[in-house]
Amino acid sequence: MKILQSHSSELRRLGVKRLWLFGSYVRGEARDDSDLDILVEFEDGKKTFDNYMELKFLLEDLLGVEVDLITVEALKPGVKKYVWREAVSVEGL
């Protein structure tokens, strides 16, 4: 998470309001082929296709792993409670 905190200005430039990590990495169950699940909330008016894709590529470059990037609004009702139960906020953005 320190990597993300140290690039907070780039993340904010893309309209990131908040990030949370969840999934196998948070649960300590990640394998070599696991992707990193990241939930993002964008600032009002900043959620664009370009910002989303640029953020996904930036996160993958910084973290060196494939990222499954999901917006808060895109969370499906059936999984929403499970995601929020294990989500870990990235502080300092």
Quick summary:
By secondary structure, the protein is an alpha+beta fold. The chain contains 5 helices and 4 strands; from the N terminus they run ααβαβαβαβ.
Structure description:
There is one protein chain. The chain contains five helices and four strands. The chain is α+β, with helices and mostly antiparallel strands and 93 residues long. The protein has one domain: Beta Polymerase, domain 2 (2-Layer Sandwich), CATH 3.30.460.10. The termini are close together. The mean pLDDT is 94.
CATH top level label? Alpha Beta
Q: Report the C-alpha radius of gyration, rounded.
A: 13 Å
Structural class determined from secondary elements: alpha+beta
Tell me the strand order in the biggest sheet.
3-2-1-4
* Total domains: 1
- How many H/I helices? 5
Query: Beta-sheet strand percentage?
Result: 15-25%
Low-confidence stretches: none
Gross morphology is: globular
Looking at CATH, the homologous superfamily is Beta Polymerase, domain 2
Helical residue percent band: 40-55%
Terminal CA distance: 10 Å
- Give a quick account of the main beta sheet: strands, pairing sense, barrel closure: 4 strands, mixed
At the fold tier of CATH, the topology name is Beta Polymerase, domain 2
Mean pLDDT across all amino acids: 94
The CATH architecture assignment turns out to be 2-Layer Sandwich
Q: Write the H/E string, N to C.
A: HHEHEHEHE
